[in-house]
Design a protein that fits this description.
With 308 residues, the protein is mainly β. Helices cover 1% and strands 56% of the residues. The radius of gyration is 18 Å and the shape is globular.
Length: 308
């Protein structure tokens, strides 16, 4: 009886953090209520974002200032910055949290930041032009890089600190995601409106599928059963069933959907819609949009943290 009467602490819902490149802020969305509960100053033009340190630190690329911002999420304040090179964009973090990578457009390289000391440790030059996203494989052994002006996917071996392969894909590749077992990679090609399914171990294209107009962002369900593809030219998100490799749903969202993130339980998908200035929230069980949450100007992406 005493156990039954003892109050149970309420569990806080995750927060979604949205870099707004037109406002220079991160909007903070409480995913329980789908309302904005705060804004964090984030340089001049924040774009890529990755969350580390048990969900308490965000690493955000500040493109015109050529740096990576280090933001304390519970304190909602910048606590450091790291020089990267000219025009950094997509940011990724290794599965063990030891490395943050940033795609540096003008120099065509990937900067590796050691999160233990928050310093740039080394740089890997890639063959593709204008790298957009840099994403670690689930094993952490490789980084896949979309070369948006090279129509290719560049593969970096982290241990060797060098590029070891290049995979031709469609015109202007953008978002990258992996199956949980690391055997497949999914790449959206924006200008050809295609989705490429890659053998992530042999580094070859296994299948090419038609996607929505100007396919862009990629997010993979934690159980690997579905892949979500944002279609920037038609204000929608497509849902791929990975068992049949067919599109099973198309969901209308805000204008110019870009990068996305799932809640830890994968119940909701948060989609940054740049031209609408909103984040569209999707119920993944029913494949329907629940709400548009107004954020800052030109939201570029979303990252979700469970830290308080």
């Amino acid at each position: 009886m005493l156990l039954l009467l003892t109050p149970v602490p309420a569990l806080s819902a995750p927060f979604a953090y949205v870099p707004n490149e037109g406002s220079g802020t991160l909007s903070v969305i409480d995913t329980a209520s789908d309302t904005v509960v705060g804004e964090i100053a984030a340089g001049k033009k924040p774009r890529g974002i990755a969350i580390g340190a048990q969900g308490r630190i965000a690493y955000v690329s500040d493109q015109p200032n050529n740096r990576l911002l280090v933001i304390d999420l519970p304190g909602r304040a910048q606590v450091g910055s790291i020089d990267l090179g000219e025009s950094p964009e997509g940011v990724g973090i290794s599965p063990d949290g030891k490395w943050v990578v940033a795609a540096v457009e003008e120099s065509n390289d990937i900067a590796f930041v050691d999160t233990a000391v928050n310093r740039r440790a080394f740089v890997v030059k890639v063959r593709g032009k204008n790298p957009e996203h840099a994403v670690f494989s689930p094993s952490g052994k490789h980084v896949f890089v979309s070369a948006e002006d090279g129509d290719a996917l560049d593969i970096i071996d982290v241990g060797k600190r060098q590029q070891v392969a290049q995979i031709p894909v469609g015109a202007r590749p953008r978002g990258i995601g992996f199956s949980p077992d690391g055997k497949r990679a999914y790449v959206a090609a924006e200008n050809s409106s295609e989705l490429f399914i890659i053998d992530a171990q042999k580094f070859v294209v296994r299948k090419k599928l038609k996607a929505g107009l100007r396919a862009n962002g990629i997010t993979v369900h934690p159980d690997g059963s579905r892949v979500y593809v944002s279609n920037g030219g038609e204000a929608s998100v497509s849902v791929l069933d990975t068992r049949s490799d067919t599109m099973v749903a198309t969901i209308a969202v805000g204008q110019r959907p870009w990068n996305m993130a799932l809640t830890p339980d994968a119940a909701k998908l948060y989609v940054a819609c740049g031209r609408s200035g909103v984040v569209s929230v999707i119920d993944t069980a029913r494949n329907v949009k629940l709400i548009d949450v107004a954020v800052g100007k030109l939201p570029w992406g979303v990252a979700i943290s469970t830290a308080p």
